[in-house]
Amino acid sequence: MTTPTAARPGPVRVLIALRISDLTDESTSLERQLADARRHIAERADLGWVEVGVARDAHVSATKQSPFQRAELGHWIKERAPEFDLILFWKLDRFVRKVLDMQDMLRWAEDHGHKSYASVTEPIFDMTGPFRHVIIALFSALAEMEATNTSMRVKSFIESVREQKRWAGGMPVYGYEVYKAEDGAAYLRQNPRQVKVIHEIAQRLQDQPGESHAEIADNLNHRNEPTPRGTRPSKRIVESGRKYKWTAAGLRKLLKNEALMGWKMETRPVPGKKYYETIPVITSDGEKIRIADPIFTDEEWAKLQAYLEGRTFKISSPTNVTPFLDVISCGYCKGKMRLHVARRDRKDGTRVEYPKFRCFNPRTVEGRTKYGCSDQASWAPDRLLVTFEHHLMGEFGDKDVEERIYVVGEDNEGRMAEISELVGHIMEDMKPGRRYGTPLMRGKAEAILDNLNAEYETLSTRPQGDRWEYRNLGKTWRELWETSEIPELESLMRRNGVKFYCYADQFELHIPEQLQY
Q1: How confident is the model at residue 234 (pLDDT cuts 50, 70, 90)?
Q2: How many angstroms separate the CA atoms of 146 and 125, rounded?
Q3: How many structural domains compose the chain?
């Protein structure tokens, strides 16, 4: 039968457990914790206390990770338990913050030779005493209460400044930086260098011919332009020597973020999903809150979003580039058609190529991703492109070419669209469990909706705002086809919504109604 630590003959082997969280600035440094712990052990040398190891866990939240889940302490507990008798920590909340976690550690201690726990700064916390379980349970409850109170204070602060132009904390979107004003509060302002990079990205995407997201990302990485996260890397990233990289998806996500227009944003869970969405904060008056100067004008933003919606990514291979990638589509699934080149080596050492247009829409088959829908067919490039030209010229080859352009008028339509979006957000927040989901708050939400509805009705009677218009380019489609390069033709057709659908035994040219007259 094993005996408690206090009754054991010989030395008491002490493991020092250190933890610091990356979520708060109130934690004492690991160095300070270690110095105090070693002093505490030295003062008990006459009791046989001796240090046998140190478990350092930095950037770890005790509310999210139990001792078993931490890198170093977890390794000692699960793999090196025979090497120590007592775990010493600077303060209980450095060890656990949940009653259930402490109860798990108590059971573990009983099952592993009656190991003990002790606190450097809380003398009453000592498992060698007769009331150790009562004391430990009490302190664990207090630690959990403190963690809950801290969380409530943070949430209360964020809610209190929700409709103010102050910055509540955290990392701002790329393009902005935090500064403290004379009133001592934090606000946002533009970061000139980052704003210049954002404008460069947007311009390079929309130039004719524009670059792809991937090409721009590669260029930014090549010239070592810091990424949004790379401008403020965590200590762990710096210590590991890793670097953040620009990606095509990251560029698109950045350019679609409404925070670039200076709006104050908030994150909320999506009902029934495991992910969150970031949306503008809506005041009780039904307005968005602008907390910094916008990086784009309203016209620039509208054009950029229209471009991003019109083309998700400009994907192409360096060789065998697919012509009319956004125009020629599979008739069965409406997915993109790609130029695929199969290659076969001959016995004489030469290589033969078999180019084919085929569907490239991804699908999952028995847990694996395959490209091409189940009804796909394939076509030789020469035959397909000749057929496309035949249909295009036969339909409107002698008609004047018109280009769809975005016209910024009065902001009525933009504001009306914004109101529609705000109404949708408020309606979502009126569902049970949301901000306006209680009877008390429902009346407030209804008042906001009434004001927005009245404003919408007023705007709907005024002249039209932003809109698409068609501009005559002074050429027929036949003339343009004969004098232009494929990228220019493809870009024009994509902007105008022209599609060429391919089936196994027929083809279909889809032309927007506006172009048919």
Answers
A1: low
A2: 17
A3: 2
